[in-house]
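Q: Could you fold this chain for me?
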Amino acid sequence: MPVGFLTDEQRQRYGRFQDDLTPEELARYFHLDDSDRNFIAPHRGDHNRLGFAVQLCAARFLGSFLEDLTETPATVLATLSRQLSIEQPGCFADYCTGRQRWDHTVEIRERIGYVDFSDGATQFRLNRWLYALCWTGTDRLSTLFDRATTWLITHKTLLPGATVLERHVACIRLRVQERLWSSLVRGVSPEARQKLDLLLAVPDGGRHSLLDRLRKGPYRRSAPELVRSLQRLEEIRSLGIDVGLSLRIPPGRVQALARFASTAKAAAIERLPEERRFAILVAFAITLEATASDDALDLLDILITEIFAEATKVGEKSRLRTLKDLDAAASQLGQACRVILDFSVPDSDLRAAIFQALQRDDLEASLNQVDKLVRPPENMYYQELQQSWGRIRRFLPPLLKTLKFGSTPAGKVIAEALEFLAEQEGRGKQDQFKLEVVTRGWRRYVFQNDGAVDKKAYVFCCLDRLRSALRRRDLFIAPSIRYADARIGLLSGEAWEASRSTICRSLGHSLSGEETLGGFDRPARSDIPLGRCQPFSQQVRADWNRRRWKG
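A: Sure. Below is the predicted structure, expressed as structure tokens.
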């Protein structure tokens, strides 16, 4: 058990005065009120009264009585001498060599109510507090030592020796660690333990263990790399570690063990005691599944964005190349429109006048050219996207097979469309498509002239909606860190009804949702000052305009 974790600075600072105290510390711990003055007054002699006051205030500030009173700072002596009207603080030297100081410590302990560290009730409370800190947090032993020291001072407990408290903190920390390891390992099956042992083994002829390979996330932006990240996720799931093992354990403790497994060498982990080794590997597997899922979705977002951005870029370049042809065709059609708008030309002679100004063949060619080159306002660059169909087909089947998406009500349609694609993967004949996912911009590409559905356009539409839904968190996966359900932690049911009135009152809202929302939809009236009954956006806009004109 480690008992030598304190630094030299901590050992020197423990239970002793350090540098000169700040004015705030002097005012808080070395101010003598009326009860203190009455307690000090019966002692005869300036040296006794000053020494008694020093020990009384030192016990408050340090949590212990000084062994060497000559270490008392001069600022403390000056502050207390001024309050006791003692003109010669040098008399304190006589008190430091006298025996009366030891009787004064007993008197101070009985009057103020200080207890020893060995008191059973005090140790029980301290152990319970330290145990909760170690179980819920990942503080270092030196930090726990400082916090335990502060706790003892606050609860009027005399500080023990530095090594005594050092061993006590280390013992509590070890008990918590042993409970943590046993809690993680308790539900692991023998088959899963064998698979965990294989993580540390280096195959014959190889240089890296399976643990080293699983720790490496995707590092390229390509479809094969996404497929590899999905295979990595499948290998983690094949270990058979139940994620529910960590539900009763604080996430910070599990993540701390997982970080150790992610950075330490496989040989170093293999040399650890059995229970600790398996606990570290279980925490690594639990955390890595969520991390691997997030890595796969991050790479998926990058690839989809890259595919659509490349198609847009190619489409814009192609449009720039055809801009001259479009200008020429539009110029001829503009001449025809000028003839139509000329009121001096009778309606009966309008067609003849147009064909007199332009040849019929030229006009038809210009019209066909405009129809060919003009793009709709919601252009999806589908013709350019089709060039990336091979990349899509490379990662789409393993993606639909590996990742199962949950959804909020806003993303339910997208989740159903993805489930449909997963079910139809590998089938020759397609069932009825989930057409609710098709937006207005994709309709002209998905629905063909004969009413059939273009599967490629449908897939691109689903990927476009998938990217947007993931960014809005309308779709989520579990386990995950960055793409988890955003509604986790929200109050619902009886818990919400119990806290509803308190939360609404603190936010200044009514208990009725309709009444609260109705205040944003009431029309503005001219007889009411600006910004009182207007919609929120109008009120903000009006305030901004008012500040702008004042500036």
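A (continued): Residues 520-551 form one domain.
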